[in-house]
Automatic annotation (TrEMBL):
Origin species: Micavibrio aeruginosavorus
Annotated Pfam families: Glycos_transf_2
Limits of the Glycosyltransferase 2-like domain: 8-133
Record-linked CDD domains: Glyco_tranf_GTA_type
GO molecular function list: transferase activity
Sorted UniProt keywords: Transferase
Name by which UniProt lists this protein: Glycosyl transferase
Length: 319
């Protein structure tokens, strides 16, 4: 009988026929000895369901849930949480690869932090890198993987476009695809909001922060993300999702006078990622005129890294 607690590996799948096999394979190769796998096919229009069913055939503690209608990532994640038997839930993306030691590493990080602090209201993120077709690898370090771990208000201010707390390690933020969380945390925080089509993970993080949650991470690489395109990754989908998040927390944004600023910054991002250079420039000028100090601080913190990152992505072949 296994003495280690059961970990549910949850994989959301939507039109991922080309990539879902490697995501499932990475789940099956985990060195942590006590797992179950739940794949939620969110009403894919390709043959993802058939591929997943064939891969999982005959594998104990693995099952496929097929949605009859598309619910978005949040809805698919809710199916995972409600059907999970594990004491912990680890989220895998349908186009990413989790290294064999991911679950064991994150489990150790959680147990070590709990033992050292007595805190159980927490979630753990993994470090890794994003792989591009030209060979470029963009490394990312997990939030809380170095001192000081963000706690409660630290994370809320970060998500409200406020200056970051000095000494707090925010890393790469709170992407759902590298998160592992004790299932009981969902009892306190609640399930995902299906209305947040691209920001369900940020919304969950804000609600966890409101409960005083701790945002920990493992510094060791455990996830390989792949740069991919899809309907859910279009600039307009991201724009509408980010605006929906701001509207959901309008009172919170307004309490720190960041409501209009956040919407203007999101519009700048939308024009930038949509390659609308003139509109992007005009939006940036408007931001500087309306909020000179806030814009300067955020622009100087994010723009140089972003420009270098995009230059590396654009190279035909990365040495």
């Amino acid at each position: 009988m296994n003495s280690l607690p059961l970990v549910t590996i949850g994989i959301t799948c939507y039109n991922a026929a080309d990539t879902i096999p490697r995501a499932i394979e990475s789940a099956l190769k985990q060195d942590y000895p006590n797992t179950e796998i739940i794949v939620v096919n969110d009403c894919s229009s390709d043959n993802s369901a058939e591929i997943v069913a064939d891969i999982l055939k005959g594998i104990p503690n693995a099952r496929l849930i097929n949605h009859k209608k598309n619910t978005g990532v949040g809805g698919a994640l809710n199916s995972i949480v409600t059907h999970a038997s594990g004491d912990y839930i680890a989220i895998f993306d349908d186009d990413d690869i989790s290294m064999p030691h991911r679950i064991s590493t994150q489990y150790r990080s959680i147990k070590s932090y709990e033992a050292a602090t007595g805190v159980t209201m927490l979630a753990c993120w993994g470090s890794g890198y994003k792989q591009y077709d030209n060979g470029y690898r963009a490394p990312f370090k997990a939030i809380g993987s170095r001192p000081r771990v963000p706690v409660g208000r630290d994370l809320i201010l970060y998500q409200l476009y406020m200056p970051r707390e000095s000494g707090v390690f925010y890393g790469s933020g709170t992407p759902g695809c590298s998160m592992m969380v004790p299932k009981k945390v969902y009892d306190a925080v609640g399930l995902y909001d299906p209305q947040m089509r691209r920001t369900e993970d940020t919304d969950f993080a804000i609600r966890l922060a409101m409960k005083g949650g701790h945002f920990i991470g493992c510094e060791e690489d455990v996830v390989i993300q792949t740069a991919s395109v899809g309907q859910d990754k279009r600039p307009d989908v991201g724009y509408n999702s980010e605006l929906a998040l701001v509207e959901k927390y309008k009172d919170l944004f307004s309490s720190v006078r960041r409501y209009e600023y956040a919407k203007d910054w999101i519009k700048l991002r939308y024009h930038h990622f949509g390659k609308q250079r003139l509109r992007s420039a005009l939006a940036l000028i408007r931001l500087f005129l309306k909020y000179p100090d806030w814009t300067a601080e955020q622009f100087m913190r994010s723009a140089p890294k972003r420009m270098l990152h995009e230059w590396k992505m654009a190279r035909k072949k990365f040495a």
